[in-house]
Amino acid sequence: xxxxxxxxxxxxxxxxxxxxxxxxxxxxxxxxxxxxxxxxxxxxxxxxxxxxxxxxxxxxxxxxxxxxxxxxxxxxxxxxxxxxxxxxxxxxxxxxxxxxxxxxxxxxxxxxxxxxxxxxxxxxxxxxxxxxxxxxxxxxxxxxxxxxxxxxxxxxxxxxxxxxxxxxxxxxxxxxxxxxxxxxxxxxxxxxxxxxxxxxxxxxxxxxxxxxxxxxxxxxxxxxxxxxxxxxxxxxxxxxxxxxxxxxxxxxxxxxxxxxxxxxxxxxxxxxxxxxxxxxxxxxxxxxxxxxxxxxxxxxxxxxxxxxxxxxxxxxxxxxxxxxxxxxxxxxxxxxxxxxxxxxxxxxxxxxxxxxxxxxxxxxxxxxxxxxxxxxxxxxxxxxxxxxxxxxxxxxxxxxxxxxxxxxxxxxxxxxx
Length: 417
Description:
The protein is an alpha/beta fold. 28% of the residues lie in helices and 26% in strands. The chain has 11 helices and 18 strands. The chain has helices spanning 5-13, 41-52, 88-100, 102-106, 124-140, 149-155, 182-195, 239-244, 308-321, 370-383, 397-400, and strands spanning 31-37, 59-62, 78-79, 117-121, 145-148, 170-174, 178-179, 199-201, 206-212, 215-221, 224-233, 253-264, 272-275, 280-284, 289-300, 330-340, 347-350, 356-360. The strands form 3 sheets. Strands 1, 2, 8, 9, 10, 11, 17 and 18 form an 8-stranded mixed sheet that branches. The longest helix has 17 residues, at 124-140.
């Protein structure tokens, strides 16, 4: 069933009782050509592009819970391509182009809103860094505008421009950036993959990875053994735990990243705004809630919940930048498990085990990367060649030290990005 205005009218007049299921609920088959471990945004996007671009339909996506119940539903929904380093810049530019055609591609409203992203800066040094990043974005073919203080005051009149500790010098404006509806992205890719014959199997936890003579042969699950010629690990914050089933030790630390939303308010924030001195970012949802987040909780954890000291830290940063936040009531908070790589950049690569592929290390950039990640990982799994946009995301860069991409310029070691 395709979604369109006529179908919505027809279903509305008949009590909305005749919609087709968005996707099937099949039982797992004994074997597949390809198994994707992880039913989040990246895993579902990979399955979709395997079928839609490469014609690989004998594919199963295995999810231990429900589809879209992990990090893809636990983020602040920001979409952007304002990266500055070679390798990252090409990839996120590629992903943003896919975002811009995603609703037509999937025939599904993912509520992609290109409202613009403004990264504030608060010193001459930060201004120089923003100018360099903006030039890199323009050279890549993306958009960037350097805003002066007066421009920011006109566009963002609700900020505290009179604070003396972190005065606002200006901002880097990325007009094509914005937000999207996180769970709708997962649902759209799930529906598209299912329509093309991919089996989406939830409540099916992978408990082991079968390897014979250095080649993956399948997986063990809570619903029995399933054989496969190729297996892709796409499990975000649980990457280290799943990779350990294959005897691998990854250069990954898992941390909690909290997010928050206030009660619904009248429209007040038109853009996504980030605070250069507080690692604070905020936007307003279509339902009126102010959605914001900040630093990750600086201790390793596999729990999807944060702590009160970090909550206080994020609130302090928000109040410093935007005192009006103190008048809004906090509605809820949540946490996602982010897999932090040493250089702050992801991994999309084959492993030393033939037929086993890895997609992880997305740090703070997982949601905005969903289309590009799925498209690139599907290309790798289907052809055994890296996609041009993800060619720098090699696993062995952490072994050799060659090709590290320290995007935030804070050191290629844990807990410093």
